[in-house]
Amino acid sequence: xxxxxxxxxxxxxxxxxxxxxxxxxxxxxxxxxxxxxxxxxxxxxxxxxxxxxxxxxxxxxxxxxxxxxxxxxxxxxxxxxxxxxxxxxxxxxxxxxxxxxxxxxxxxxxxxxxxxxxxxxxxxxxxxxxxxxxxxxxxxxxxxxxxxxxxxxxxxxxxxxxxxxxxxxxxxxxxxxxxxxxxxxxxxxxxxxxxxxxxxxxxxxxxxxxxxxxxxxxxxxxxxxxxxxxxxxxxxxxxxxxxxxxxxxxxxxxxxxxxxxxxxxxxxxxxxxxxxxxxxxxxxxxxxxxxxxxxxxxxxxxxxxxxxxxxxxxxxxxxxxxxxxxxxxxxxxxxxxx
Length: 338
Ligand code: PEP
Ligand code: MN
Known about the structure:
With 338 residues, the protein is α/β, with parallel strands linked by helices.
């Protein structure tokens, strides 16, 4: 249930509604708009919520039942787009932001070099994994904390904030010391201990859709993070597993407008994991922006044939420059900028 307060409701009226929610045994989450406050009622209690009692309270405009299982992630709770700050811009604003870099951080020199290249081409943030979730235990697992230190050096050189994956709840404080945005990978979207830990950290989070996850499951995972009061959550469509074998995953273009409709959180397209093949990455990035994505996360490598992971889907710097120019034009065509 959500309680929509009247425009300019008094602070005392808002406080009374919160006290009533708490005395009924629920938790109150506030969404404060410019003029209006919306109070989300979440949690479980043996006391039934009586809509009519809340409607009758001073300062309450109306009470709405939210039928979706996610509450704080829903548009009903927060009608305006949530803006997540990134490098002086905001994800979720008119400007489409691009996060670019290699799949894995491979060496100090290579991450600094690629950071300079993607910055030059117009990227807003640098991506790169230091802890890699690999299907095979024999594949390159990442350089760990050393990789994070190299990322921090690349940030110092370029000013680009860092987006990097965290795989274990116990490593959240350490990764958060280096990262500007914590990435939750597709294999961990339903790792609830990890979601609780990044929620507690209050650090911005890029949450990927699960490999076979539904849109509702993605929003429920976001709800875990939001329920800890961490509102800086970005959702990422990165393709799902289907019967189709021509590409690594099937990029679900529908998910972008569907998510923009269901939730206030910014939505990012990942055409690299969405296709798995570099020759399709640029066209799918264009499609993502045309469909309303607030950002694109894309893998770029100086020499994809030599990459330690995901080389087959990585753009080279020249291809990345072309992608940047093309998505700028698509963004303008849909009244955005890039
Ligand atoms: C990645 O971003 O390199 C990655 C491992 O992505 P995903 O979790 O979407 O597979
Ligand atoms: Mn990758």
